[in-house]
Amino acid sequence: MRAPRDLVSQGVFIVTSAAGSQTAGMTACWVTRLSCRPAWFGVAMHHGSHTREVVLAGGCFCLNIPASDQAGLARHFGRVSGRHTDKLRGLAWRPGPTGAPVLLEVAAYIDCRLVGQVEVGDHTLLIGELVEEGVLRKARPLPFRPRDYGQGRGGRGDRGVNARGRQRPEAIDRGRTGRSGATGPGAGLAQDGRGQGDRRRKIP
Ligand SMILES: Cc1cc2nc3c(=O)[nH]c(=O)nc-3n(C[C@H](O)[C@H](O)[C@H](O)COP(=O)(O)O)c2cc1C
Predict the structure, then answer these.
(1) 81 lines ligand 1 (CB under 6 A)
(2) Is the C-beta atom of 44 inside 6 A of ligand 1?
(3) Quick one: how far is CA 107 from the chain centroid?
(4) Contact 198/80 with Cβ under 8 angstroms?
(5) pLDDT (0 to 100) of residue 175
(6) What per-residue confidence (pLDDT) applies to 178?
(7) The dihedral of CA 128, 131, 135, 136: what is its sign?
(8) How far is the CA of 194 from the centre of ligand 1 (A)?
(9) Consecutive sets of 10 residues in the chain, 204 residues long: mean pLDDT of each?
(10) What are phi and psi of 99, to 5 degrees?
(11) 50 Cβ below 6 A of ligand 1
């Protein structure tokens, strides 16, 4: 039985950013709309996140919205920190108007310039104003399903799925899925600075 706090509905996003020549990206579920006019969005990033540092340095972030068949992409960006590895390598992307990477294989994106930040416990709420949004392909957005991340019955972990969410024959260097002691949606999922050490993966 999931805890009531885990029943708060949430989507899945790949939040990317750039500062100078440095790029970053992480999976985030704690994303929400905050205001219509201006069009503001919020994303909560834990203090250990490398992407958070790049967002603060570069002043921008892009909410990339994966398609329903791209759970592998969410695992790719959600399990290892980009502090020592380039998670964008091998993926098709272009800089959006803010400079934040737009992933070209996702369903849609919302490119934002950073307009504020609020410390919220062990996370930072990063507030962005929409600069450009676009649909890249006709597809349903990826819903959050615990089993996609090795939680609950039928959890698939990384089995046979590459970073683009497609089946592939050989399993990648997959990490454990035990609890990390971290908080947030990635708790028990991330194998990075927040948890049990950086377990780097090859980019498929
Ligand atoms: C499905 C999923 C959702 C996640 N949601 C969040 C989130 O909303 N906020 C957060 O700080 N971390 C979240 N995480 C954990 C980060 O994606 C993870 O710590 C990532 O490795 C951080 O990468 P970075 O250090 O390169 O920024 C999530 C992980 C997964 C798998």
Answers:
(1) yes
(2) yes
(3) 14
(4) yes
(5) 29
(6) 29
(7) negative
(8) 10
(9) 90 98 98 98 98 98 98 98 97 98 98 98 98 98 95 49 39 29 44 34 32
(10) 105, -15
(11) yes
| φ, ψ dihedrals at 200, nearest 5° | -75, 150
Cβ of residue 17 lying under 6 Å from some atom of ligand 1: no
Mutation choice for ligand 1 from 49, 70, 199, CB with most ligand atoms inside 8 A:
49
Q: Shortest CA distance to 133 belongs to which of 150, 98, 158, 108?
A: 108
Which pTM value belongs to this model?
A: 0.82
Pick the CATH number of 4-149 from 3.30.420.40, 3.40.50.720, 2.60.40.1520, 2.30.110.10: 2.30.110.10
Task: Indicate whether residue 51 lines ligand 1 (CB < 6 A).
Answer: yes
- Residue pointed to by tokens 């091998």: 90
pLDDT at 185: 56
Question: In what order do the strands lie in the sheet containing 40-46?
Answer: 22-28, 13-19, 60-65, 108-120, 123-135, 40-46, 31-35
Residue of 82, 26, 67 whose CA lies nearest to 165: 67
- Residue-level pLDDT at 89: 98
Residue 190, ligand 1, Cβ within 6 A: yes
Is-contact 197 179, C-beta < 8 A? no
* Rounded Cα gap, residues 204 and 95, in angstroms: 22
- Residue 61 sits at φ, ψ, to 5 deg, of -155, 150
What is the pLDDT, as a whole number, of residue 146?
Answer: 93
